[in-house]
Amino acid sequence: MQTAILKHITDFYESAIFIYCAGLFLFYILLAVLSLIAIRRSLWKNKIRGQQMLVASPLTPGISVIAPAYNEGVTIIANVRSLLALNYPRFEVVIVNDGSKDDTLQKLIDEFELTEVNFAYRQQIPSQAVKRFFKSTNPAYSKLLVLDKVNGKSKADAVNAGINASSFDYFLNTDVDCILARDTLLKLIKPFMDDPQRVIATGAPLRAANSCDVEAGVITRVRVPRSLLPRFQEMEYIRSYLLGKMGWTFINAVPNVSGGLGLFDKDIVIKSGGYDPGSFGEDMDMVVRMCRYMCEQDLPYRIHYIPETLCWTEVPATYKIFFRQRVRWARGLAQIFGKHRKVLFNPKYKKLGLIIFPYNFFFELLAPLIEFAGIIYYIYIIVNHLINWDYAIILLVFIYTFSILITSLSMLWDQLIFRYYQSWKEVCQLCILALAEPFIYHPTVLFCAIRGYFNQLTGKKHTWGNMQRQGFNQSPNLQKTI
């Protein structure tokens, strides 16, 4: 009797896992098809309106580039010069010195001839106190504004202060150590100007800058990271942005705009309350709150992603830093579902409640838990000689093959369309790496997710720590808080 009951439970569990995997694979296939359509549409639109029209037009909206800085003294000058050199007719650069303990602020003062000024600062969203404001006495740096504020222990608090001080209706949220393409603002503002509906945010793919050639804050050659861990992350980023975000863009259901590069409608951000300094996933939380505000006000809106890589950032090169980052990300995802639980399956929130949240709930939040439970289950039935080896092998081979196919497809699309790498050898290196991902990289990400959920459930205090960066052909002692 017990054996029969156990067999029924086993059959039910295996059927449920099969249905779950089939649903996930169908979503991936659908996103891949929609992504290809969205990419082709985006490239076609870019042919219609040239960038020079935006540069010359007096109607091109102004943009505030907001970049928090904490202990960035090693590279702050080169990075700020890079931001000031962006190709756009009307913009300002707002650097928020978030209580740096090194010489970040002093280097800015000396290099850009800054002097303390009186500034009409209006605090529309909460942040730690701003102590001083600096502008340059040199007209060449008239676009630069530097804030010196009390440390808020999170990037979100610093961005809020930058938003309060910004002059224009749109702002770019980025990191001061990110390397941006010179035409970043021109490309990100286009959806705001072209779409008949109100666009509240646009984003673009990020890429690993590890091992890339950089001169004067400009990427001169894109290279595949030499180290194994950054190379896995490069592969993951390409797949996530090109196959994921572009597919969601096609149906206007983008779930998140990265905190490393995102252009936002400032008015909607302020009305949504600004960034939450207490959130571990402040970028996704901000987008969710913006979408909730638009739905609650019954206002149509769109969020766009463009397929071109416009931002390069140095990804974690050590497992210690990688663990800390991914645990925080997983904790942030769990925190968001707890904070916005009323959105899930709620038709009031339209695509956010009926598509974005259900997908993220079943295939992002629950996926690590289901996978971990599946591993425990398979160990149990193997030990008790209950496993159906034919079924198990077929399922594992199918999952493994599908994973490699999706990853390789995204690598090939990226190279065929944009050709960021100079040789196909580099692309093949990433495709070959896909063979090892299920055995090396994916279990690491799974462990981080489980740990993040556990920390969130138990309320364990998060230690932000410092990220040791190798820098872009610079000193290896550069640190950045994550």
From TrEMBL:
Q: Where are the transmembrane segments?
A: 17-39, 352-379, 391-413
Where does the Glycosyltransferase 2-like domain lie?
Answer: 64-202, 253-402
Q: Which UniProt keywords apply?
A: Glycosyltransferase, Membrane, Transferase, Transmembrane, Transmembrane helix
CDD domains xref list: CESA_like
The record's listing under InterPro entries reads: Glyco_trans_2-like (IPR001173), Nucleotide-diphossugar_trans (IPR029044)
- This protein's superkingdom? Bacteria
Which molecular-function annotation in GO is an example for this chain? Answer: glycosyltransferase activity
Q: Which Gene3D superfamilies match?
A: Spore Coat Polysaccharide Biosynthesis Protein SpsA, Chain A
A Pfam match is: Glycos_transf_2
Which family would the database say this protein is a member of? Answer: Belongs to the glycosyltransferase 2 family.
PANTHER family named among the record's database cross-references: POLY-BETA-1,6-N-ACETYL-D-GLUCOSAMINE SYNTHASE
Q: What is this protein called?
A: Glycosyltransferase family 2 protein
Organism listed in the record: Chitinophaga varians
